[in-house]
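Journal club side-thread
Mid-discussion, someone asked how the predicted structure for our own chain would compare to the paper's figures. Pasting it here so we can look after the session.
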Amino acid sequence: MLNTSNQIIEKLKKIIAVETDFKVRVHNKMVAEYLDMNYQTLATKITRKQIPFREIILFCGKRKICANEIFFNQRLGVVDAVC
């Protein structure tokens, strides 16, 4: 089952936290930066419970993360032959 927009944003925050070695607390503004989005656009999408699919897929592609891990409840890891 597809995760809600809030669950997806929380997963993105966890990934960003790992990338930054947990040195900073990850807020929605930082998520927007990592997704190459305007913060207001992301905030609007979150409010409307919309998911920025394109931006998340590009984010996953750059980091070799399987997008299914973000959108569905799957273990996080590097893209392999299955994904």
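Post-session note: Residues 5-71 form one domain.
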